[in-house]
Amino acid sequence: MTDRAETATVTAEGAADGTAPGPDPVEEAARAWWIRVASPDGAPPAPDADFFAVGCTSLQAVMVTGGISEDLDEEVPVRLLLQNSRYGAFVTALRAFLATPDDEATDPGRPAW
Q: Which long-range contacts (CB under 8 A, 24 or more apart) does 104-109 make?
C-alpha cells in the first residue's frame, strides 16, 4: 500500500521550473469512476452533482469506492461516498481521508462501511 499523505498530495512535476503541477491522482480516480458509474453520457461531474440524485444506488457507490481503492492502492470506505454524495464534497472528503495517517483512519467505534 502507498502512504496516505503521499497519495493525497498533488504531484508537482515541473513545479520547480515554473510549469503547472502534474495531474492530481485523487481527482483523476474520483472523476474517472464517477463518470464510469454515474455519467452515462461521459460528461465530467459538476462539483454539485449528486450521486444519488442521478439514480445511482449504494451498490454503485461500492463500485466507485472499490475502483478508486484499486486505482490508488488504498482502501476507500464506501461511507465516504454515502455521506458525501455531491461530487465536490466527495473529492474533498476523499483527500482528507487519504491525508489522515493510517493509525488515525479507523475509528473502532464506527463500522468500516
A: 105/4
Annotate 94-106 with DSSP letters as a single string.
HHHHHHS-HHHH-
* pTM recorded for the entire structure: 0.73
Q: pLDDT tens digit string along 94-110? A: 999 999 887 555 554 44
CB of 82 closer than 8 Å to CB of 61? yes
C-alpha cell at 35: 463518470
**Cβ(98)–Cβ(81) below 8 Å:** no
CATH of domain 22-39+50-102: 1.10.1200
Whole-angstrom CA distances from 74 to 27, 31, 40, 44, 100 are 14, 16, 26, 23, 12
* Grid coordinates given for 42: 461521459
First to last CA, the chain: 20
Partners of residue 86 on adjacent β-strands: 50
